[in-house]
Design a protein that fits this description.
The structure is a single chain. The chain has 15 helices and 14 strands. By secondary structure, the protein is of the alpha/beta class. The strands form 3 sheets. It has an 8-stranded parallel barrel, surrounded by 5 helices. Strands 7-8-13-12 form a 4-stranded antiparallel β-sheet. A two-stranded antiparallel ribbon has the order 1-6. The N terminus is likely disordered.
Length: 408
């Protein structure tokens, strides 16, 4: 039966990470050893030991020896001395089966929603927990290319509420910890009050697959949120306050801060000002705190919905080395009303776009985003079912091989 509802995505970019910051997990002893602490936290999140199951280990051991740590394509790129984009998937810590599937289809890099661990603990535990987290993924043959969404609670930061300085202190501590363990990138957003937003999530796509849709007329009919009206100026002030404190810490730690555009890129959305809705807004962000680590999560479909020329922007921002992370997806429509498409049937020439990323020297993580839900899968997490991602990975790899684009 068709439904008509709003969703704030399961995508880690938009998960609100304000659920329990500073609480200790009941699984943690009062005085744990450093490794015991990390394993206890991860066991609680993963629902078992903080390592892959024996089934997963066996699957890895059965791979040909030349593919245990890298796919054949990335080996070729390495032999030629060529850098390549890091093909990645969002891999939740609680779904180990997806880790196995990712490795089987040649994905070597993970983007991790670390807030599901870090919002449960105090900041003096960040380093130990991230060390254990990284080791857990590496044990399965996956390199963490970055964390996505605010790694700790940040809603007070975005809304400018009392308590934001404590959230910023946590944020700085986690950025320092990411740098120490060698996780090089943090993808974050500044969508206050409402994250990734759609008005329907069950729109029929090719062959009856389900995709999401946004219609601003419907959104407006739903009225204001509990936050009431918030001006764009207020959001700009809040972002500036955040950047001036966090970017210097990130630069010292060597962690790239990749800012995601607003999705949908319209303002206001149900009364809340949205500021990251144009290329000019991102140019402004880059100048607030000029730094080699202040950059962009180039969610290309959002820039399309802004009415921007994304080829020109890839040349501009990519040429400046400011694209730190790519969300590879497509949409049909405008910012006022649009729907998600498959990766191969939208209006954007995805092959030309992938080639352009390569030509400007982009070698960061790239992941397919917001794929339709295919037959036989639950639509509980719209855009994040796995079969559509498998299709998208194959599509990307096919383009890359046909155009001789190295993928790591």
């Amino acid at each position: 039966m068709a439904t008509n509802k709003m969703t704030t995505c399961a995508c880690a970019t938009c998960v609100e990470a304000n659920t329990g910051a500073g609480r200790e997990s009941k699984l943690i002893p009062s005085k744990p050893s450093r490794r015991a602490f990390g394993k206890a936290i991860l066991a609680g999140i993963l629902g078992g030991p903080a390592v892959l199951s024996s089934t997963a280990q066996t699957a890895e051991e059965q791979l040909p020896s030349d593919k245990k740590t890298r796919g054949s394509r990335s080996l070729a790129a390495t032999r030629k001395g060529r850098k390549g984009m890091k093909l990645a998937l969002m891999l939740d810590m609680r779904n180990k089966e997806r880790w196995i599937l990712a490795r089987q289809i040649g994905v070597n890099h993970a983007i991790v929603p670390a807030n599901r661990v870090l919002t449960r603990i105090k900041r003096d535990r960040y380093l130990d927990t991230l060390t254990e987290l990284k080791a857990t993924y590496e044990a399965s043959g996956l390199t963490i290319a970055g964390v996505e969404s605010h790694p700790v609670a940040a809603e007070k930061i975005k809304l400018g509420l009392p308590g934001r300085d404590e959230e910023i202190a946590n944020y700085c501590a986690v950025i320092e910890a990411l740098g120490k363990v060698g996780i090089p990138m943090c993808c974050y957003n500044f969508m206050a009050g409402i994250g990734w937003y759609r008005t329907r999530v069950d729109v029929p796509e090719r062959g009856g697959a389900l995709t999401s849709e946004f219609d601003n007329q419907i959104a407006e009919e739903r009225g204001l949120t509990r936050w009431g009206k918030i001006s764009e100026e207020k959001i700009w002030d809040n972002l500036t306050y955040f950047l001036k404190q966090v970017i210097p810490v990130a630069e010292k730690a060597g962690v790239k801060m990749a800012l995601h555009p607003d999705d949908p890129p319209i303002s206001p959305l149900r009364g809340i000002g949205r500021i990251l809705t144009s290329a000019e807004a991102f140019r402004r962000v880059l100048q607030i705190v000029p730094s080699p680590v202040n950059g962009i999560a180039f969610c290309q479909a959002n820039f399309v919905l802004m009415g921007e020329d994304i080829k020109s922007l890839i040349r501009e921002f990519g040429g400046q080395g400011k694209i730190f992370f790519v969300h590879f997806r497509d949409v049909k429509g405008t910012g006022e009303r649009f729907r998600e498409t498959f990766h191969d049937n939208g209006p954007t020439d995805m092959a030309k776009i992938l080639k352009l990323y390569h030509e400007v020297g982009f070698d960061g993580p790239i992941r397919p985003d917001h794929a339709p839900t295919l037959g036989g899968e639950s639509n509980q997490s719209p855009g994040y079912a796995m079969q559509g991602k498998v299709f998208a990975i194959g599509y990307i790899k096919g383009i890359a091989q046909a155009l001789d684009i190295p993928i790591m």
